[in-house]
Amino acid sequence: MTERPVYSIIAPIYNEEGNIDALFERLSAVMEQIGEPWELIAVNDGSRDRSLELLRALHQRDPRVRVISFSRNFGHQIAVTAGLDYAAGQAVILIDADLQDPPEIIPQMIEKWKQGYDVVYAVREKREGESWFKVQTAKVFYRLVYRIAEIDIPLDTGDFRLMDRRVVVALRNMREHNPYIRGMTSWVGFRQSGVSYVREERHWGETKYPLGKMFRLALDAITGFSYFPLQVAMHASLALAVIAVLAIPVVALLRLATGQLIFEGQATTLIALLLLSSFQLFFFFIMGQYIARIYDEVRGRPLYVVSDVYGFEQRVEEDAQRVPAKGVVGTRALPDVDSNDAVADEHGGST
Ligand code: UDP
Ligand code: MG
Predict the structure, then answer these.
(1) Does the Cβ of 179 fall within 6 Å of ligand 1?
(2) Contact residues for 205 (Cβ-Cβ < 8 A; gap 6+)
């Protein structure tokens, strides 16, 4: 008897046992005020705590809570991707499970959506309760990506955003193995707008983004949306060539005029050599980053492996193809049921 939701709210969950109930409470308080049908799609990204148990209990209490559970941890961006694959709403809202993104902002997003915007992203005016290091690295990161990316990705926006169904369908057709959802929602275009908010402190627990994961996300963002790092090698090579060409006559003239050598000794040579090798190795690293991502795409592995789903039975009846049952793999976008969603899925991974 559950109606088709107007809003699908997607929350990726990785060891968030202390946040799940609070998240649902605050979300449902907000969504009750809106008064239109909604669902919460929780994507359990291989949690090792009681998250899945709590999500299942929530689903039993309230069938509007639907759960996709991965077979292991696949990462935040992939969890969001899975949520997008399963969402049925006319508008989809991405939100972190730790309540750093206050659900109370959602009505403002919905208002903008109703005014005709297709993407409404939330801009972090201020961040509270995060370490100086996190705030500063995030700031530098967003500005770096903004400078070098070929598309405009709004500054200081996370994944907290509302997207119209058309945007979701477009995203479903981008089966990237190292997705940067924020960039991808900018890439697809449509009418976009922002609302600002204060990023709150984590309700419970520690960040699930340690330095290593943050670094990887930054590399996904940069490699996904810019060739600039590859072009740096050319600029550096030109600069070194110019230095070399200028240095030859200078060194020769000085030697003839004063009889002096500018650079003496092996130490100078050694240091110069080490410096240049380090530059070269760094560019190997950069190329490697692009190559590894090409390799990920070429292998064409599924984006994720689902072990269980809860609450999608009715939708299975509605459209048998849409949500496969147990053992689902996310190789390709699930076909969309709406006839007016005209984006063709041309590059499904069937080999
Ligand atoms: N998350 C996830 N898989 C991961 C890491 C994080 O699903 O491997 C989820 C996490 O549960 C949270 C959201 O992604 O709902 C954002 O993570 P977190 O709050 O730790 O990141 P931060 O806000 O510190 O950048
Ligand atoms: Mg957080």
Answers:
(1) no
(2) 15, 16, 18, 19, 98
Measure the CA–CA gap between 35 and 18, rounded to whole angstroms. 27
Q: Which residues pair with 121 in a beta bridge?
A: 161, 194
Question: Please, are residues 184 and 153 in contact by the beta-carbon 8 Å criterion?
Answer: no
Domains of the chain, start order: 7-223+301-342 (3.90.550.10), 228-298 (no CATH)
Residue 99 in 3-state DSSP? coil
Please give the sequence-ordered ranges of beta strands (E in DSSP) within the chain, or none if there are none: 7-13, 38-44, 65-70, 91-94, 119-127, 157-164, 192-199, 306-310
Q: Is the CB of 16 under 6 A from ligand 1?
A: yes
- Choose one of 10, 13, 14, 204 to mutate for the ligand 1 pocket test, by most ligand atoms within 8 angstroms of C-beta: 14
Q: At what angle do helices 76-86 and 211-225 cross, to 10 degrees?
A: 60
CA–CA separation, 198 and 12 (whole Å): 20
pTM reported for the whole predicted model: 0.86
Kindly report, residue by residue over 242-289, the tens digit of the pLDDT.
Answer: 998 998 888 888 888 887 776 677 888 889 899 999 999 999 999 999
Closest protein CA for atom 2 of ligand 1: 76
- Testing ligand 1's pocket by substitution, the residue of 54, 76, 304 carrying the most ligand atoms inside 8 A of its CB is 76
- Going from the Cα of 57 to the center of ligand 2, the distance in angstroms, rounded, reads 23
159 Cβ closer than 6 Å to some ligand 1 atom? no
